[in-house]
Design a protein that fits this description.
alpha/beta, TIM Barrel, 45% helix, 16% strand, binds cytidine-5'-monophosphate
């Protein structure tokens, strides 16, 4: 895999002109993530537009519903030709299995473990999920593997444990990545790009540090250099 392919830029924008502006400013960008904000704003045709530009598209709509509905959603979305799609592992084994059966084409299906904005206290006290975040993430990842998913979304902090328990081929896609000195925002379980790579992360999902920068190309290049050193 080329180093540029390790970075999936989260396009959390609403307007098409902003999106096109960003793509023009960072021409080396090869993988993008379309989340709810952009998808709900511009609709399914957006996937084709990005694919026509030669980009790989991770459609991050975090499906979480009963198995039958999850099947329909994954089937419809994978027909758009996206490269990656995700479901919440919290939907359970049966939901993930049905979602996996619904995939068409080459789309990879990834399970969201615990959001990187959730810390230990919020997980235990608010969500009433007992145990450490790492134990819970590992349990969710093991369920995702049992359901036949291609990998999980997790924080870089859990990537090494997931790789050692579930194997190198099982993908670790990690948001919660912050270059030194950048704003953390609402992210709680964060690591630097170098730490994420050293922990075994396959893809680093990075949004605001790039998209909100006055010089996205410079930040993108700095992250690339940091990854190159860490590999
Ligand atoms: O701007 P930032 O780098 O925080 O963006 C991270 C992206 O990854 C966001 O689009 C967010 O929705 C997504 N994400 C996450 N944590 C997860 C799953 C997805 O931050 N567990």
């Amino acid at each position: 895999m080329k180093v540029t392919e390790r970075i999936i830029v989260a396009l959390d924008l609403q307007a098409e002109d902003k999106l096109l502006g960003l793509l023009a400013k960072v021409p080396e960008l090869s993988h993008v993530k379309v989340g709810m904000e952009l998808f709900y704003s511009l609709g399914p045709d957006l996937v084709k537009m990005l694919k026509d530009r030669g980009l790989k598209v991770f459609l991050d709509l975090k499906i979480h519903d009963i198995p039958n509905t999850a099947y329909g959603a994954v089937n419809t979305l994978s027909r758009l030709g996206c490269d990656m799609l995700n479901v919440h592992c919290a939907g359970g084994l049966a939901m993930m299995q049905r979602a996996r059966e619904a995939l068409v084409g080459e789309t990879k299906l990834i399970g969201v473990t615990q959001l990187t904005s959730i810390d230990q206290e919020a997980m235990n006290q608010q969500l009433r999920i007992q145990g450490s975040v790492e134990e819970v993430v590992l349990q969710y990842a093991a369920l995702a593997k049992e359901a036949g998913l291609h990998g999980v979304v997790c924080s870089p902090k859990e990537a090494a444990a997931i790789k050692s328990r579930l194997g190198k081929e099982f993908l670790a896609v990690t948001p919660g990545v912050r270059p030194m000195g950048s704003e953390t925002g609402d992210q709680k379980r964060i690591s630097t790009p170098a730490e994420a790579i050293k922990a075994g992360s396959d893809y680093l999902v990075i949004g605001r540090p790039i998209t909100q920068s006055s010089d996205p190309q410079r930040v993108f290049n700095e992250i690339l250099s940091e990854i190159e050193v860490a590999l």
